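Usage

Read records sequentially. Each one opens with the input sequence:
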Amino acid sequence: MEKIQIKSLIKTIIILTMIILSNCSESFVNNSAYNVKKAEKLTIDIDSLGISDLPFPHGSIIDFDKTVTVGNGDEWIGKIVLVNKNDTSDLFDFYRNEMPKYKYLNKSNKINNKNSLIFQNEKKTIFIKFPNANNKINYIEITSTPIK
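and closes with the structure output:
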């Protein structure tokens, strides 16, 4: 009985953390101080995350100030914020086409929604959000939460 309560508590803490991280990102996207010059200074070391079950669009830069992950390989959870100069609709199509190659099923119900995608496999759910961007750079917010 205690194991079930502890698992439930851990899952609740993880979900609340993801919600808090998601809410923090709104101010980051709308902050005019975050511009192309800062984006160009960010490290592009995608391999340092150690994530093996997620594709990254060509030219993506990880904003390590806004990225928080726990675990590695295909056992990671957390939030990754990417900066990319590609068009938002191209980035949307990239994830819609590439995620099934990583054994994820598209769980998004709104076909016309170009702002977010939801994918799921047997271990976790991946939320991919494309917040409003400025004229020169686009943001991709990827949140991973466990299913069980």
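Summary fields computed downstream for this record:
- Helices lie at 2-30, 36-41, 88-98.
- The two ends are 16 Å apart (CA to CA).
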